[in-house]
Amino acid sequence: MTSTEALTEMYRRMLRIRMFEESVQQMAARGELPGSIHLSIGQEAQIVGSCMALQDSDYITGNHRSHGHPIGKNASLRGLMAEILGRATGVCRGKGGSMHLADFSVGSLGESAIIAGGVPVATGAALSSKIKQNGRVALTFFGDGGANQGVLYESMNMAATWDLPMIFLCENNQYASLTPMAEVTKHTRIADRATGFGLPGIRVDDGQDVEAVHDVVSAAVTRARSGDGPSLIEVLTYRYRDHSEGLRFRDAYAGAARKAEEIAAWRDRDPIAIAAQRLRARGCSDNDIAAVEAGVHNDIDDCLQFAHESPMPDASAAFDDVYTDRKVGVTR
After folding, report:
1. Residue 71 lies in a domain
2. Which of 31, 61, 99, 288 shows the greatest Cβ crowding within 10 Å of its Cβ?
3. In this structure, are residues 161 and 126 in contact, taking their beta carbons and an 8 Å threshold?
4. Of 64-68, 193-197, 249-253, which has the strongest mean pLDDT?
């Protein structure tokens, strides 16, 4: 069991993710954001429990559903919101957007729309940590859809063979886009796949319990940092919203809706409500909890104002941070 102070911080970070993403969802519904967004509302405990098991200098990589991961690492909301709005003050100078957030200041090496695309990046970071002996651990997040990608197993084999300081964490929200996991995977317990690589494989059956996730990931981080190699962790969780949202996707999922009873059952296990109830059981008053909520509301208002008041990138910035110099004129 974590301390009341730590649980309060977990509650704060989960609220930051929830309110941040609700704001993003509302902007997308109004047509203020280009493209699509992928929300992790409902999965906050799995994100925060994992990220708070790490040190500030440790590495993480995300996936297409990763607004929450840098927030779980306590990143500033200003740069993240500005990035989603495509502003020059964003963490990627407005070039990355919703699915490509990166904030090196908190060890977030980036996110990718490529399924399991962050896994080899984290593996490389773990290899660099071992070579440099800097004591850092790398944790890569991937979904149950990513669990069937070949690059995951190439990376697990490499990490296992070289005892890299790494955690492979499967966010099993039980749907790959619209596809239930059982329709495309015979053996649905992802944690069992660790056996083939000689790794410990642990499954957290209640991924809505932030402390349960934190305890398991903390043990894996200790193992990795002590030189005993990587672990595979599977966390059962659930996303409350559709796979993707935005104006183009408003009616995309009408014929593939999940059962209302299923969604309701998972909403009854809302990770933020569970954490608040646990805080009250430990003596925190409603005023204490309200103060945390008020602080997060202020943070959201601040990051929205900052993002909306930030400038769009200058057209000349399109040539910055690329692998070739800008060439002006036409060569004949």
Report:
1. yes
2. 61
3. no
4. 193-197
CA atoms within 13 A on the CB side of 185: 20
CATH number where 163 lies: 3.40.50.970
| pTM over the 0.85 mark | yes
Name beta bridge partners: 152.
none
pLDDT over 70 (residue 199): yes
Model confidence band, residue 142 (pLDDT cutoffs 50, 70, 90):
very high
CA distances from 261 to 18, 28, 258 (A): 22, 27, 9
Instruction: Give the Å distances, CA to CA, from 171 to 32, 40, 141, 235, 237.
Output: 29, 10, 7, 5, 7
- Inter-CA distances, 98 with 95, 263, 287, Å: 10, 25, 34
pLDDT digit string, tens, across residues 86-125: 999 999 999 988 889 999 999 999 998 899 999 999 999 9
Across the beta sheet with 231-236, the strand order is: 59-61, 138-143, 166-172, 231-236, 201-204
Domain containing 204 equals 4-310
Q: Tell me whether residue 315 is in a domain.
A: no
